[in-house]
Amino acid sequence: MVPEMALAHGVDDKTRVFLENNTGVQFIPFLYIGAKHMVTGYDHLLFLLGVIFFLYRPKDILLYVSMFTIGHSLTLLFGVIADVGVNAYIIDAIIGLSVVYKGFDNLGGFKRLLGHSPNPKIAVLIFGLFHGFGLATKIQEFSLPQDGLFTNLIAFNIGVELGQFTALAFILLIISYWRRHKSFLKFSTTTNTLLMSAGFMLMGYQLVGFAVS
Amino acid sequence: MQENMTTQPLMKATIFSALLASVALLIIILPAEYNIDPTGVGRKLGLTVFSEPASVPVSADNASTGERETILITVPANKGIEYKFIMNQYAKLEYEWLTDGTALYHDLHGEPEGDTTGYYESFTIATASEMKGSFTTPFAGSHGWYFKNETDAPVQVQLIVKGDYSSHALKQ
Fold it and tell me: Please, which residues bridge with residue B110 across strands?
């Protein structure tokens, strides 16, 4: 049995060649795969956009992003090391749900419905845990050899944080520029409605994928 | 968080976002990603093209004639290639292949027709310089070899086949 061949099949050719030819500790390549996954992972980015949308103080942004980071780092490491196989479609649908949740929360939806907004820091932490399982399933698709697994995993995780940091810097740059204009508040309802809609799309996309797979 | 939203605009925003998502899913995302096209709009927009099974051109030149056929394949240095036969379910292929003596990593496998998940089933995985055998396809689709050349020089594979296939080609 050569399981890595079976799983590497869905991976693009370059990554396949890399996985076939490399074993052991590969710090920088895994750092890169992690960063690339976060920068190109629109589902994670949409959630982050929702989280920082109404955060004005750098201290708050740091706090919330840290909660998210702690959440997804825990499950990313745990998921791969304990080899927890979570269905990727279900996890990605929950990530879609996290985007809907945050958009609805930003619109003041929970406050209106429940009389209070569920602790937003805890919510970010919990959804962070799900995002981490999502990252874990992505890295499990690479079916990593045990040799150097832990170091490669740490490299992947650091890559995820670097990618998140880079993406966040761009989002913050644009959003803080936008905040100085009247249109920010005028369009914040529209933006969060569209955010919810994007979340619904992700959910539908993944749930149908689960149904047909 | 917005504090000034009353229930009605909140409901409106939520329903609108779900409706927009449903429309986008029905006419764009599902046709493009899964070839599920309940409205038919996806096909009209040309979006189902991504999910249609990769078609290998079928011509009289490479359809099975029932005779033994010899195919020469070059595996470039340090590269892997796939050579595939389009076959129906329960079709049989007898094969024999050999190199100049250089061992190649190879994976004989089949991919179901129309599958987009990347699923495939391996029949034989080994590293060798020649092999002889036959297989019967468990499902319709493309069946054949992944050859990987781990040397610094190109290796030629002489592949001799006899069986039921509609076409064969190097997978691009």
Answer: B121, B143
